[in-house]
Amino acid sequence: MKKIIICVSGASGAHYAKRLLEVLKDNENVKTCLIISNSAKKIIQHELNITVDDFIKLSDEYYENNNFFSPVASGSNIFDAAVVVPCSMKTLSSIANGYTSNLICRVCDIALKEQRKLIIMPREMPFNAIHLENMLKLSKLGVLIMPPIPGFYNEPKTIDDIIDFVVGRILDNLGIKNNLFKRWKG
């Protein structure tokens, strides 16, 4: 069974995190742990028009972002991957510079030091040179940087189609089979 930690930081894009959790909840071979920043809690309510409690129910385990006594705060707690979706520039900078002031950044620091898969979905545009330097630093450390840039060759008809494309690509990179979008056939 794969254990994946889903981290939701305070940037627009809660739809991506929600859909990722929905798909993983239906996969009996995956266990999810969820961490949500305080800013993300407000964004979830605003963008998704659901309660944070309903959002949390999509995960198998939930930890508060300030809980350094949670199991996932230790490198001895094995997980397969961590995904920060969406990732604010503040969180990206903290991860890139080893500033582990909260559980999200601590989990990402563990992923880096233990050489586990780490996927970051930066949600900001345009990127400035500092953003790009932080992404380059993380990419050189093996972090997969996946801005939510959809493909249009699959002719999306709805926002859900666009979200599914991006989430499907995350799942591909986690090694989880999915049929969320029509794949390129040439």
Automatic annotation (TrEMBL):
Residue numbers binding FMN: 10-12, 37, 88-91, 123
Sites where the protein binds dimethylallyl phosphate: 153, 169
Keywords for this protein: Flavoprotein, FMN, Prenyltransferase, Transferase
Reaction(s) catalysed by this chain's protein: dimethylallyl phosphate + FMNH2 = prenylated FMNH2 + phosphate
Record carries keyword Flavoprotein: yes
Enzyme nomenclature, EC number: 2.5.1.129
Enzyme class: transferase
Signal peptide: none
Domain spans labelled Flavoprotein: 2-174
One function term, GO molecular function aspect: carboxy-lyase activity
Presence of keyword Flavoprotein: yes
Record-linked Pfam families: Flavoprotein
PANTHER family cross-referenced by the UniProt entry: FLAVIN PRENYLTRANSFERASE, FLAVIN PRENYLTRANSFERASE PAD1, MITOCHONDRIAL
Annotated function: Flavin prenyltransferase that catalyzes the synthesis of the prenylated FMN cofactor (prenyl-FMN) for 4-hydroxy-3-polyprenylbenzoic acid decarboxylase UbiD. The prenyltransferase is metal-independent and links a dimethylallyl moiety from dimethylallyl monophosphate (DMAP) to the flavin N5 and C6 atoms of FMN.
Family classification: Belongs to the UbiX/PAD1 family.
Entry protein name: Flavin prenyltransferase UbiX
